[in-house]
Amino acid sequence: MQKDSEQETQPIAVQTEEAPIEQDNLFGTPIVLDDQFDESEAPASPPEHMAALNEQTSLAACAGPYRQELMLRGKSNYTVTCFLSDLKMLIDFMGADIPVGRITKENVTDWLMKLKFGTPGMTPAPKTMARRVTFLKNFFTWLEREHIIRENPSASLTLERPQPPLPELLTDDEVRQLMEAAQEDARCHCLVYLILRAGLKKEEVMGLKVHHIDLIDPHNPLVSIRFAASTNKQHRERRIALPAEFTDIFHRYQQDYHVTDVVFPCTDRNLNYILARAVSAANIKKRVTLQLLRDTFAVQQLRDGISLDGLREKLGLSDEAWLESKEKYRRLAFPAK
After folding, report:
1. Is 157 helix (H, G, I), strand (E, B) or coil?
2. Which of 18, 110, 184, 307 is deepest in the core (most CB within 10 A)?
3. Is pTM, for the whole model, over 0.70?
4. What pLDDT is stored for residue 227 in this prediction?
C-alpha cells in the first residue's frame, strides 16, 4: 500500500495564506478577528483572578490573569501557549512596567512593524503575523470588556485576509461511489459514514468510545463527541443524530472487528490507509482526505438549508477556526452569491 502522506492540520487562531501588514492600512474599518462577547455571560462581580486589575496595572502583571481567562473560556492548549508567547514578546518590546492604560494604538502598530520588518532576513510567516493581530484584539478586548482600560488600542486593527483556494469537493456521484466501495469492509463503511453523515473530525473519530454511540433507539442513533479535560475543548462537545441505517452499520462493524472499547483502535495513518483503499476501489481520481469528507458534509448541510450557526454547532468549531471556515463553506455551497 502506498503511504498516504496527506496530513490534516489543527485549527489555529487565524488562518490566512497571505496577509501583508503595512503601517498605512493597519488602522481602518474594524473587522472581527476574535470572540463575540455575550453580555449574558458577564459575571456579576469581577472574577478573583481579575479583582485587583486596573488601568495602572503593569503589562507584565496581566500575564497570569490573562492565562486564567483563556483557560476559563475554553481556549485550546495551543492557543493559550501561542497567545502567552505573543504577550511575552509584547512585554519585552513595551517594557514590563508600563501601565496597560497607557498603551496606545501607535504602540501596538510599532510592535507589529518591529516583528514584521525589524529583523533583516527573518520575515515572519503571514499566518504568524495574523495570529499576533488576533492576540492583540483578544487581549485588549478582554481588558476593555472588564473595564480595566477605557480605550482599546487594538479596536481598529485590520488585517488583509485573501481568500485561500477552495478544495474540490466530492460530487453526489462520487459520494455514492465511495459509500458503495466502503461497504466492502465494515470498518471502512463505519469510518466513511461517520464523517460524510455526521461531519466528525479525524481527532474526534479517533477519540470515540463504544459508550459514545447511543443505539438505545435503533431508529434514532446518536453519537456523542467528548474531549479529555486536559484538552480544554469541552466547549466543542456535542451530540449528533444519525440516520437509522447507521445502527446496522455499527452493529456489523462491532461483530466483524470485535469492537468493545475504542471504536477505531488504530493510528491516524491507518485511518488514511483505510480511506485510500475505498477511494481507489471507487475509482475516484481527485485528492480525497478525511477533511475533504468533512468539508463535503458541511457544504451539503448548507445546501439542505441549515443555518451558519447551526452548522457551526454541528461541526464543533472554535471561534478562531470558524472565522475562515464560515466563508469557505459559504463560497462552496453558494458560489454565485
Report:
1. strand
2. 110
3. no
4. 81
Q: What is the longest distance spanned by two Cα atoms in the chain? A: 67
d(CA 101, CA 54): 8
Higher pLDDT, 47 or 137: 137
Q: Which of 243, 230, 238 is CA-nearest to residue 310?
A: 238
What is the arithmetic mean of pLDDT over 65-69?
94
**What sign does the CA torsion over 266, 317, 12, 87 have?**
negative
CA angle 228, 234, 235 (to 5 degrees): 160
- Each residue's pLDDT tens digit, 247-259: 999 999 999 999 9
On whether the CB atoms of residues 135 and 320 are closer than 8 A, the answer is no
Assess contact for 301 and 198: CB atoms under 8 A. no
- DSSP sequence for 69-130: HHHHTT--HHHHHHHHHHHHHHHHHH-TT-BGGG--HHHHHHHHHHHHHSSTT-PPPHHHHH
- Cell numbers standing for residue 248: 446496522
Q: What is the pLDDT of residues 227-277, one digit of tens each?
A: 877 766 777 789 999 999 999 999 999 999 999 999 999 998 999 999 999
Q: What is the mean pLDDT of residues 117-126?
A: 79
Q: For residue 36, what pLDDT band results from cuts at 50, 70 and 90?
A: very low
Neighbours of 302 (CB within 10 A): 17
Question: Could you identify the residue written with the cell 494604538?
Answer: 105
DSSP string for 200-226 = --HHHHHT-BGGGEE-SSTTS-EEEE-
Q: What residues contact residue 194 under an 8 Å CB cut-off, 6+ apart?
A: 200, 205, 208, 223, 242
What gap in Å lies between CA 271 and CA 265, rounded to an integer?
10
Does residue 41 register a pLDDT over 90? Answer: no
